[in-house]
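User: Could you check the structure of this?
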Amino acid sequence: MSTNAKTLTLRSDLAELSRVKVLVDEVCDQSHASAADSSALHLAVEEIVTNVITYGYPDGPHHTFTVSLEAISGDRVRAIVTDDAPAFNPLARPDVNTTLPLEERPVGGLGVHLVRQLMNVCLYEHRDGRNIFTMERQLNRGSDSTARFAATKLESSATLALSGRLDGLSSPELEQQVLALLTSDIRTLVFDLAALDYVSSAGLRIFILAAKKMKAAGGEARFVAPTSAVRNIFEITGLLTALDVAPPA
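Assistant: Sure, the predicted structure tokens are below.
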């Protein structure tokens, strides 16, 4: 690892994602990464770190592991996540079928697919009792805040206006709001994505869950005005067709 690498030692606690965000921001700023590159790096690192915490250490927050980021060759950023959880190669999982209709889609499972699509290099090795996952992103170079949700309910429909970042930290709050709305008598649930800057697989899981539950109840979920960054995530996961995503105006 280069001496220029920035390394964090993290606890196996999802609250640590806030520290990961700061680290990625620092490296992206120093590398003059474009908004698209920055979003891709945030998402990929968050997905792998979340997997380690959630599945590698399910027994609680008393474990530690490391994530390191560095700019290499002037126009690339490398991230390495190292942990001592049981050996597991996420790249060995079967490819996600992004053409499945909504009814046949699992609610989760999109995280590694997103990493593969957004990174130029993904490598896994198990060495000296540790999982080592390496990712690299080629930079193209060319306002960020915690996600906020505003719900408006009118008779048989409800609209959720999302803004900021929908990630592993903010998605539980949205899930609670969605589940509360699903227990009411609404027939249409609209997700207004015009101010949503970022969505990870944790957020996609909630979108799929809401769409499936609304359809099973004879209603519908609609997704309107996604930003270009969010629309790109919908596209590479096949959700533009699986969900009712409004076309650009």
